[in-house]
Amino acid sequence: MAVYLDNSATTKPCSEASAAILNMLEENYGNPSSLHKLGINATKTLLKARQSIADFMCCERDEIFFTSGGTEANNLAVFGAAAANRRLGNRIVTTAIEHESVLNSVNELEKQGFEVIRLMPDRQGHISPADAAAAINDKTILVSMMYINNEVGSVLPVEKIKALVNRSGAPALIHSDCVQAFGKVDVKPKKLGADLITISAHKIHGPKGCGALYIRRGARIVPRTFGGEQEKKIRPGTEASPLIAGFGAAVDALHDIKQQSMKIKELNAYAVEKLSGIEGIRFNSAPDASPYIINLYIPTFMRSQTILQELSGNNEIYVSSGSACAKGKQSHVLTAMRLSDEIKDKSIRISFSRYNTKADIDEFCGALAELIQKHPRKNK
After folding, report:
1. Which positions are catalytic?
2. What is residue 378's predicted lDDT score, i.e. its pLDDT?
3. Cβ burial 260-286 (10 Å sphere, 16+ → b, else e)
């Protein structure tokens, strides 16, 4: 039986999301912009999904803007904030361990003349609030910091940024990529002090191709695309009604965060105990990282891509060598953490969801121990 431990890349859609999507495809298929009954019914479904997400985040419904996913939402936040505030300053502060959709966006802005400060992590993926304080000045127009890192699970000090921005007198908007946090910990704008928050459906057992950007009422960003009146012109174009309905259904189906967190912490502790019994294993994730993610070094002569292919092909065990968006490239996160090439080349990520069990961990650890024994690291 297959063991799926790549939930940070994507999750299996829950039955509630699948049913909502099918209903929109086969029954409630009207264009939400149409004024007839079928269109109005579709609009009602979108409003319900928007309200479900807003209620879960403790914000207002009109602060949720649907996108095609986390990447588009991150691009919209970064480029939109920079364009809106350029007359107020030129500095952007972010971290070196952001998702590629943020890193590549600020790289492009740097080419356009913006000053970009990239905060470096320590060897366990932590970002220092003191470093952030030193980087934020009165010319800072955007601070973009993810809440939970997608590769090693480190929790970044997002909640401290608002006070640092206020102290510096900066006109900065605060953006947080909460794709790996939403549905796992409280993602509440007021608590985080964020003006812009990115979330995604397919990380919480919803469909791929749908995400959202929270924009605090009163915060101004410039749109990236132009067209009709949809999403208040922030993200125009016919809404992906089936996917949005699935997103809303997945949110409604989320379990109590505290109870789910307890279960995942127990699963994480069990996995760490079992993995610690395999000689040579090293954990790249810090003890205080999100329990949903464990990044670890495997003592074998094979590189991480080969390791995951061996586990997949021979055992139907599915893990990752890092961010799915990196397409197998060497991890920029582990590089920023200043880990050796040996560790970077032979590390994998396992990530949990509410559907995982201790039996999955047993299967994984057994297969991993067998693989290491069969293909041990060669002494130099």
Report:
1. 325
2. 67
3. bbeebeebbeebbebbeebeebebbbb
